[in-house]
# Entry
Amino acid sequence: MILSALNNYYHRLIEYKEVGIARFGFSQEKISYAVILAEDGSLVDVRDIRDTSGKKPIATILNVPQPPKRSSNIAPCFLWDKSSYVLGVDSAGDAKIRKPTSSKPHQAFKALHRELLKTCDSPAFKALLQFFDWWTPEVFNESPLFSKTMLGANFVFRLDGEMQYLHECHEAQLVHQSRLRKSDSSSALCLVTGERTPIARIHPSIKGVYGAQSSGASIVSFNQEAFTSYGKSQGRNAPISAQAVFTYTTVLNHLLRKGSRQRLKLGDTTVVFWAEASSAGQAKAAAGLFTTLLDPSATDASEADKLRSVLEVVAKGRPLKELDPELEDDSKLYVLGLAPNVTRLSVRFWEQGSLHSFAESLAQHYHDLALQPLPWKIEPSVWRLLLQTVPHREGSQPKANDIPPHLAGEMTRAILTGRRYPSNLLSNLIMRMRADGAISSLRVALCKAVLSRAMRLANKPKKKEIPMSLDTDNTEPGYLLGRLFAALESVQQLALGDKVNATIRDRYYGSASATPAIVFPVLVRNAQHHLSRLRKDKRGMAVNLEKLLNEIVDKLPTSFPKSLRIESQGRFAIGYYHQNKARFSVQERNLKEGEAQ
# Structure
């Protein structure tokens, strides 16, 4: 299903004349230099064709014959390649030049072209073969046309006085097409197209997945006997035609290219997505809106306004076309999550649906997260949420490498489908808050989202909904204990002021949220000493705090619970956060009233 969707997307991009999509048998590759030849095969020049307009030269992207798949094998490209193949020289640590006797890639490159071009009468091809007759790698050191910066770069050929490169001329196209038609693979029914055609033995590598090998990795690969069955080897275990293999790998590499707006990094998962619509403009608009919904910019005010507008339209059940005439609610979206797995790629998730259904799911996700007052200027992206599951160390930023494996894929799938959040998400958040004491708004919002969604999907109408802001009528023990803990912390801070080296949150939050019966009696007794000190200097404040403590305790059972389940610990964090926010809101209001007077 995934490969079939990618194959269909490739043909739509060809129909839309998308820039950067190569035809069957060709590939978009980075080329740095062109070897200019005279008709007698002599060297005229070596032209630098890189883009030098910026601070650093950038290789030019050219449409060249598709390269073979390489690992440790020697496999030359047709009419282009890197310096070790084209010229027999390469950098090897100390940038020494290889000797002709050890230049096996160069010998293979010459042998391939002598075989393919031996019957061609083109002056350009004759010049290339004559060049091979006299060229030796030592010339690289001797000629002023070459420099060591060229080592390892990709080269193409051009005949002096011609505008086309050799691989672009008509004769080269015919030779290349002839090569593509000759296949050593047996024919079988293609799993993608349903046609009986020659089957690809090896699939090209996929590049651009974060954490995978820089040379690329495979989605379909059978390189060990244990992975095969019925005596079939390599690609025959998953029969896919050579053309379908080309289309799915080409379009996937296009989606994963550097600078792509259809690629996101979420933890260990690389997400790519594309849209299917009536026109190229509608497909682009749908993909753009999906990017805004899934990964809103934390700094772009216009993006924030756009996201809020979308959420408002979805909440009111109105069509997305009201925001943009190019947006169609029934445009189909495909979302693929990939993660590295040594030389292969793992599919973390695969989701497809209409633009409207995804927009509804994401709107529900943001509603589940919502707190009042909103603690953020723009709804948090999945990336920001994932960082809440890693340690928050004082003086350092959270590290993406610490995000638990598989969590990004599971969480994104839950957001896109409206299903439950990962089962370990709440326990991970509770553990982190207990370990580092960072009860941040995003962590609390995630706790609320997990609990709210679980209750809604479990269809528990009698269970009180998780509140967005302080709910003084909520009698759930975990929520009340969180409020009580926040109130006790306020008493301590107001009584001791700046003399507090570590608050009760720093010392007791973890045990208070897990085993209340052990900790709370001690905290309540200590609070009486703090209240007596407050009565001397701030009697009114002491009265209000004592009233708050009694109000919360009166709603609790006659004895503190011996332990709290993980869901109640989540409610504890929410109650603690709500009570603290209410306290600071009162302080800010009192301060403003004092300034006004």
